[in-house]
Amino acid sequence: MIPNSWAPWRKSGHSRKGNDPQYSLGKIMTKDFIKIHVQKAVGEFPGAVTVIVAARDVTVDGLCMGKCAEHGVIDGSPYVIIGNPMTECPGACAWPFYKADYGPGGAVLKPPSGDIATDAMVISLASGMASVVTNPFSTGFFQLGQKASVIEASTACPGMFGSGAAPGYTGKVLVDPLNGGAYNVVGLRGKKFLLPALWNPKTASCWTVM
Q1: Which residue, 106, 34, 98, is CA-closest to 63?
Q2: How much is the pTM?
């Protein structure tokens, strides 16, 4: 992987949330509709990062085609969008909590929260946020000799969650004795999550929290 140049994003201390229960733009999220949502969400905070989480019955154009999160920049404002993997493509975007569609058959783990969709979306969101920070314009990293093939911080380490990971094996993770859920991070209020590995350009290897 070859690092390219990118401008650091400004720091922001603002946050807000909203929803669209009436599906004002329909249930198929195309890039044109994503642009409208981002512009509406940014409002008076230009440059803020917009995170769009699609409802279970909304299809996100472009997902499940080798990626489980999409990111980009609209009018100078970066965004991340994720869909519900149980609707979109559970075999591709809900592993290791759901049987994989392809590749070596590995063990299916229990989600730490008890809900497959929720914990799979956490993985997708973590991947998308890492990408929008390290590679906002999709020019940050690429395969040597294949500049059109963009590789990002998390996609460079597919299916890796702990040390010793291999195709079909997540690597070392912890198991919650109360519900059997697999996790590698404990957050606020003791919430447990499974987060993906990220590429470390300094060591030229995948970094995991465990």
Answers
A1: 34
A2: 0.87
